[in-house]
TrEMBL record:
Any GO molecular function: arylformamidase activity
UniProt-recorded name of the protein: Kynurenine formamidase
SUPFAM superfamilies, per the entry: Putative cyclase
InterPro entries found in the cross-reference section: KFase/CYL, KFase_sf
Domain of life: Bacteria
BP-aspect Gene Ontology terms: L-tryptophan catabolic process to kynurenine
Length: 221
């Protein structure tokens, strides 16, 4: 039997995804009440509006998030984000180095790094500099081995502590290789180690380099 496993966070008005960035504002553009004058009695509609920074909820980074001439959301090939064979890597420590991928065939796959940091989602601890991240060497290994998509259940795929001095090697290496990056995944413990198909498709907006996705896996056939 086919099962769908949702590994994306819910987007809620006012919530913080990334410390320092504003939370989404969700309101009515046309309320049910206001729409009534347009329609027959008993017929009404609601059109809402969301105002948010692109880095909200569980989102995908495209090369143009990092590089001025990089591919944006409208350039994204669906092969990179839909029906991709997935693999989950267990990585309980803070630094996820290349050894975490020893013996794992990552070529052509969505590589999802499970650190467990999603347990802190919507608490102050979530954005703390101690969050887990991928090292530059790990990012190079994944790029050189042909990973199709790389995701993590942490606040950032890079080290954002003062030690990093503002460098973002995981973003830099993966996005330079044309590998989209997913951040703020959750519930990766619900997935099998492999044998699932993964989906994380954003909308097709020209000129934007990041956007929320509904990230989910299909298990079984
Ligand atoms: N994901 C990127 C970019 C980022 O978070 C950011 C970029 C410009 C301005 C603000 C940012 N984040 C929080 O304030 C990073 O790792 O720093």
């Amino acid at each position: 039997m086919t099962r769908f496993i949702d590994v994306s966070h819910q987007i809620v008005a006012g919530m913080t995804t990334y410390p320092g960035l504003p939370g989404p504002v969700i309101d009515d553009h046309v309320s049910f009440e206001a729409s009534q004058r347009t329609y027959a009695p008993g017929t009404e509609f609601n059109i809402t509006r969301i105002s948010m920074v692109a880095n909200t909820g569980t989102y995908l980074d495209m090369p143009s998030h990092r590089y001025r001439d990089g591919a944006d959301l409208s350039d994204l090939e669906l092969e990179k984000v839909a029906d991709v064979p997935g693999v989950v890597i267990q990585a309980p420590g803070r630094e996820v180095g290349p050894e975490a991928f020893d013996g794992v065939d990552v070529a052509g796959r969505a590589v999802l790094v499970r650190t467990g940091w999603d347990r802190h989602w919507r608490t102050d601890a979530y954005g703390a500099p101690e969050h887990p991240f991928l090292t530059e060497a790990a990012a190079r290994l994944l790029a050189d081995s042909g990973a199709r998509l790389v995701g993590i259940d942490s606040v950032n795929i890079d080290d954002t502590s003062e030690d990093a001095k503002g460098a973002r090697p995981a973003h830099s290496v993966l996005l330079a290789a044309g590998i989209p990056v997913l951040e703020h995944l959750c519930l990766l413990e619900l997935l099998p180690a492999d044998g699932f198909r993964f989906f994380a498709v954003p909308v097709k907006v020209q000129g934007m380099g990041t956007f929320p996705v509904r990230a989910f896996a299909i298990v079984g056939d």
